[in-house]
Design a protein that fits this description.
The structure is a single chain. By secondary structure, this protein is of the alpha+beta class. Among the domains are: 146 residues, no CATH class; 98 residues, no CATH class; 100 residues, no CATH class; 121 residues, Sandwich (Jelly Rolls). It is built from 19 helices and 42 strands. The strands form 11 sheets. It has an 8-stranded antiparallel barrel. The chain has an 8-stranded antiparallel β-barrel with strand order 25-26-27-28-29-30-31-32. A 5-stranded antiparallel sheet has the order 4-3-16-15-14, sandwiched between helices. Helix 4 packs antiparallel against helix 16, helix 6 runs parallel beside helix 10 and helix 6 crosses helix 11. 51% of the residues are buried.
Amino acid sequence: MTQGLIARSLLLMFARPIKSTAIVKTEPDRPSSLKRPVIACPDRHQPERRRILAAIGLTASGLTGTLPWAALASSTGTSTSQALEAGSTEMAGLDGAYAGSQALAITLTQKAMEQTGTSSVSMALISRNGLIWARAIGTLGKEQERKQANAQDPDTSAGQPVTTDTLYCIGSCSKLFATVAALQLVDRGLVDLDTPVKQYLPIFAMHSPEYRHITVRMLLNHQSGFPGSDYSNAFTTLPYSAYSTQVVETLSMARLKHAPGEMSVYCNDGFTLIEQVVQAVTGVAYVDYIQRNVLDPLCMTNSRYAVQLFPQGSFAPGRSPSGDAFLECINVYASGGLFTTPTDMAQFARLFLNQGVVDGAGILSGQAIESMAELQALGETLRPVPVEWGFGLGWDNVRERAFASQGMRAWRKNGGTSVYGSDFYVLPDHGLAFMITGTSTGYQPDVIAEQVLFKALLEQGSLTAPPQEVIRTPSASTSASPYAATSQTMPAIYANSQAVFRVCTTADPQTVNVDKWEGKKWARHARWQRGADGLFYDPDAPQTRFGVAHAGNHKYLSLRTSSGAGYAWLDLAFAQAVEPGTAIPDVWQTRIDQTWVVINERYTSLALAWSGPILTLFTIPEIPGHLGVNVAPSTTENQLLVANEPDAARMIFKIPYTMSRDLNDLLVEHHDGMEHLRWGRMLFRALGDIPSLLADTTQVQTIGTNGFSLAFRAPDAIDIELDGAIAAFVYDDTFKSVFPIQFRAHFDGTLTQARGLATMREPTILSLPKAGLVLVYGNPGETVTVRSRSPETALTRTRSPNTQKKHKQATTT
């Protein structure tokens, strides 16, 4: 038998599910209501087969590195239906059941990776019994990234192939684990979904008195009314385990954006509060609870949270523009922090495919599984579009439109971070699930997932023909939309949490002009035409259509678009009409004229390096009474507030589902005799109140008990020597980090000095550009000395050899 035939036979062997035999033991020393079976997990990869596969260059559950059929990727113009048919082409090395879906997955993924620059993707097709197949494609980083890395600390992981054991963060797919934890407590009689959270978590409080009506269910179905997400310390370069406690404190300063249960708006903080509820009820920290009650019983031995740094090479890293590898520590554990693999997620998928029982272990009741899949929006009072799809408990959509169009049930959860993009689909009635994750969100995992699953359904015999794409040409649609509009009803200023649009009439009654607010002025965005269905569309993007919807006292810009791979339409409210109000108080004008700098974000913050430290304000003449805000550290852009109070500007949007997520009130506070602006957790000081650094001066300051950073401006280019600081960020006159990304993490748990952020415990010299800014960090109560010199060459005679080395590292770009 040739080596190729051996490889094909072994791949066929691993394409078939391998049923695990679990050994159940009793877990001692736990309350009886919390006892769960402890399972001694067998090696699902079976070592002998792994050894044989390794000998011929394969892993036990997937090919790694460059695949031989990359040339079979479809052309740019290929439709999804054609792609499903193309996936049935015979390919070398693929044989047996579901070979077509496997081949299609590889083709689509390689094409998407090439088009988007995604370095790696890992995926698995799953049945009720376990893995059908799994594949990992790509490397831990591009070869050019490895070459660009700092020569003093070469990164040898770039170019190394990923395997099906490589860890990825699955982002918001982690919410399903929080939901399972909550429903386990329901199964055990410890929690009731419709009991107020306050009963389980007495420390929970908000400024809006209605917070007392928020139930556990509302945390899981996005109906709580919380502002959205506390981004402070959420994504960092070192683990931060106190994040969920911080969120409770942040909520205590906030008010609700809508009444509990009035509507559902995607909300991360609700799931973070589940962490606190689990710990309050069980006495066990959330991460430990998930480990003992979900991961261990399911034999998910390659899944974990970033409570400590992972070994280099074990995970798919983020990459800086200079090529440095770093671990994105995602501290929002319940909402988005689980690192895992698609092969481990196969075990989790079986939980939903087998009514909560996996390999004889009852993890969750069948009733709980079905309750997660119930559409939660049916009782909401504010719903501008029909209730045809939407949130379940934990799930993004329990009536996934592409599969509903074929009469099939499908549940979906998407996950995305600044580094990773994932999608998880379960088809409970057809015994199939699909997990895909990779090192970007741009490769569109949902598009791949839908096509792969439809191909698998064809192979399974559940479909006899590929589904057809929905009509994408508006002129071909003759039935009137319920959101049909005219050039008289369409015009208004519309806004959502991230953008402001102006729709205006033209001389042609069948068209409208659309402008978008950019910076300090309107910019022409598009010219929309009216279609036969009464919806307006951009001729360059006819698959997206706009109309008008109403709910309560609000007018909305509705959006109809073809979802996923294009098999179904999706309708939602896209933006809310904004009406002019009374002029804002004069005191706000002085604040609008200022730039504001965050002072309480931790030095490990990814946002400080990627997005910058500033907050700016603006107004739009056509809508007096409103204040616009841009907040770089929380990636907030062009969010409108109503400003009719001298010391507060209030959030205004009520747009269901996603387009009014992550709102905040903007509040004025006074600290150290100066005005500060509070945006959620983040506190900002006016740039004009930040002291300037002059040449040949020394400043000695003590870090306050609050741990806020020290901020200094540099009117001219200057060198500074820092003594007693632990970190510093340097920005140029546009508030961009001087050194793009700072993360050279040594995986023994320490972070050394690197680009953009210097970590130091001895005198260190940094160069500040003209009109630059430096944020200096130290431990609370400790003294920091800042010595400034100019010109830079004057310092070279006084530096010690060690200090000169540090200066060279800190100024390398």
